[in-house]
Amino acid sequence: MSELTDRLAILAIAATGLLVLIVGWAGGLVEAELAGLSARLALAVLFAILALVLGGIWWEFNHTETE
């Protein structure tokens, strides 16, 4: 496997774990308590956190490579 596919595999594993943790668990709690626009906004914030964490993992891969 090449370095890129190794990175993508690690990123896919991290994404799956974070999706289950953040969107599944926290999103389930949000859905139980909120309705309407506030629920959509809360889920959008959770998705933004997920995107930032995955972007940080990818950035760290690139940062480590240059050192």
Short description:
This protein is an all-alpha fold. Helix content is 91%, strand content 0%.
Description:
Keywords: Membrane, Transmembrane, Transmembrane helix. The chain crosses the membrane at residues 42-61. The chain is mainly alpha-helical and 67 residues long. It has one domain. Helix content is 91%, strand content 0%. The chain has 2 helices and no strands. Helix 1 (3-33) packs antiparallel against helix 2 (37-66). The longest helix is centred in the first third of the chain and has 31 residues, at 3-33. The two termini are 22 Å apart. The model has no long low-confidence stretch (mean pLDDT 76).
Assign an overall shape.
elongated
Count the DSSP helices: 2
Instruction: Give the uncertain stretches in residue-range form.
Output: none
Strand content: under 5%
Helical amount among residues, as a percent range?
over 70%
State the distance separating the first and last CA atoms.
Answer: 22 Å
Kindly state the number of beta strands: 0
Mean pLDDT across residues: 76
Structural class by helix and strand composition = mainly alpha
Taken in chain order, the helices and strands follow as HH
Q: Mind describing the biggest β-sheet?
A: none
Radius of gyration: 15 Å
When the domains are counted, the total is: 1
